[in-house]
Write a structure and sequence with these properties.
Radius of gyration: 14 Å
CATH architecture: Orthogonal Bundle
Structural class: mainly alpha
Order of helices and strands: HHHHHHH
CATH superfamily: NusB-like
Number of domains: 1
Distance between the termini: 41 Å
Shape: globular
Helix content: 55-70%
Amino acid sequence: MAKPGIRREGREAALQFLFSHDLNDGLNPEDVSFWELRPAGRAVKAFAVEMLQGVVAHLHDIDAAIAGAVENYSLQRIDAVDRNLLRLASYEILYREDIPVPVSINEAIEISKRFGTSESPRFINGVLDRIRRSLPSPQ
């Protein structure tokens, strides 16, 4: 199996960080204890921290977008891995113009195959597609 690229590995590290800190307030993306337990190369850590800082800065709006895309389901009822993967991908879709939306969705689906349940890829795809469709059309 080929080694994942820097961005994929960074996304996976960011997911692991969010999962491990899901119930804590005051997330610090540069938490030294986390990075001691989850070593990463300089470029991987830099991308992961950049993603985490974005998620933390926009968490309220990201969670609102996810909640709007899941009908009759509270955010806290979503599996923790799926919830945090949705947060990462939603951040990319909503705030990262340098990453094409289809890439963000595909990366989230692929990562969900590794860390989620057997239902995760389909669920992640459906929620992210609803978020994508809610975006204003480019002029």
